[in-house]
Amino acid sequence: MNKAFFFILLLISTFNIAKAQDKFCRIWYTGERLSKVQMYKGTDGKYHGKLVWIKDGFKDGKPLIDTKNPDKSRRDKPWLGLQIVFGLEKISETEFVNGKVYDPSKGNYYNCKITVMPNNTLDLRGYILGLQFLGRTTTWWLAEESAAPATPASTSTGK
Taking 80 as the threshold, does the pLDDT of residue 123 lie above it? Predict the structure, then answer.
C-alpha cells in the first residue's frame, strides 16, 4: 500500500512540475508582436529563449543578420534562431531572475527578470548596471502556435 501511495504522489508532483513549466516554456510574442520567442529550460537548469519567428525578417531580400553584435565573430548569424534570453533562474512559479536579454537591433545586452502574469502574458524587465530601477518593462503575449505565419520576417525585439 505504501508503494502505491508514493507512486501516486510522485505522479502528481511530476504533473504539477510539468504544468508549472508549461506556463513559461512556450512561444511568446515580444512587446510589439513583431517577433516570437520560444522559452525553454536548458541542460544547465536555467531558462533561455530564442527567436523563432520575425514579422519582417528580410532586408533587401536577405535574412536579417546580427550585424550589431559586440562579438565580431557572431555578426554573420541570422536573427531567426538567435538566442536572446540567457540564464534565467526560477525562484517561484511566476518569477525568473538573474538573466540577460539581448537586443539584436541595437547589439546590447541587458540584465533581466521575467514575471509570469495570470493573463497569459510575461512582464520582462530589462535593466542596466544590476539596478532594476534603471530599466524598462515590456509585456510579452502568449502566441498561439497555429497562428504563426508560414514564412519568417523580422524587425526589432520590442526594445
Answer: yes
